[in-house]
Specification:
Keywords: Chemotaxis, Differentiation, Disulfide bond, Inflammatory response, Secreted, Signal. It comes from Oncorhynchus mykiss. It is found in: Secreted. The protein is an alpha+beta fold and 162 residues long. Strands 1, 2, 3, 4 and 5 form a five-stranded antiparallel β-sheet that branches. Strand 1 and strand 2 form a beta hairpin. It is globular, with a radius of gyration of 17 Å. The N terminus is likely disordered.
Amino acid sequence: MSALLLLLLSAGVLLSSIEAQEAYSKLPDKYRKGVDLALQQLNSHSGVQRRYLFFKSLLKSDIEPGFDVSYIYHNFYLKATKCGKGTVDVTQCKFRDDRPLIDCAICYKTFAGNIEKEPKPYVHCLHKPVLTEDMKTARVDRCNTMSYQSGDATILASKGSK
């Protein structure tokens, strides 16, 4: 009986990891590039010892003023895995439920599908329990004033998808 319970439990953990990777792979490319940028910055910190993976989107928004330019805003969660930071094959990485989620907000400009260096992409990631409402407001304000031309719509005024 306990072997069956253990088998069901391990299958559930593996399934949640597969579902998260599926969620990542279903993101449009313009949002995946932002998630990758956030993960790259997170993994560059020496204090981070575990591999984090995309968990789920909270808010996605974009403005396409034309000429193959887009302004992207993406708020999403990253979740710690049991794999070490240097792990390359993440398909076997199981999520840890003993660590808080990391709440990330990122905004950037793309041209022809690539993230532009100017204006510099804004990446803000914090453990979810630490994030305050004031910090959330500051994120949105920062993205809305991110060197857009006068008269352009703000990034969060567009119709996004959840």
